[in-house]
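From the shared-data thread, chain only:
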Amino acid sequence: MIATAGGIGFIPKGGGTAAAVAFCIIWYLFPMGYMYQGILLLVLLLAGTWSAGRMETVWEHDSQRIVIDEVAGMMMTLAFLPYKPAIIIVGCVLFRFFDIVKPLGIGRAEILPGGFGVMADDVLAGFYAQVLLRVLMALNLL
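Structure, as tokens:
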């Protein structure tokens, strides 16, 4: 249940996008303070790495059913930013871009062993998405 983000990973096509969008909706509906965001990010990173590592022994490495990495990547994208619909939507688009295209070393992060490799590329994609969101905010474009 953890690795598939409550079963979202069983969606035949687009489970990663569905998990990212579901997270964005929940994120907007249930805002939380920065301390709780930090705790949730840590829990997602730890639980995601553990569950992805366990489930890749059942399925293949970075199976499409494992979408907790997309949830953690979206959390990395939106953590500690204002709860504005524009930021959430643009953040989701940026995260999915970085996650799918895998520029700037993101693709190399997947080769790490076990759950670390499953999670690393999405966390890095989320980091890049957040940096770009912060630049857009600093330029008053968001």
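The two ends are 35 Å apart (CA to CA).
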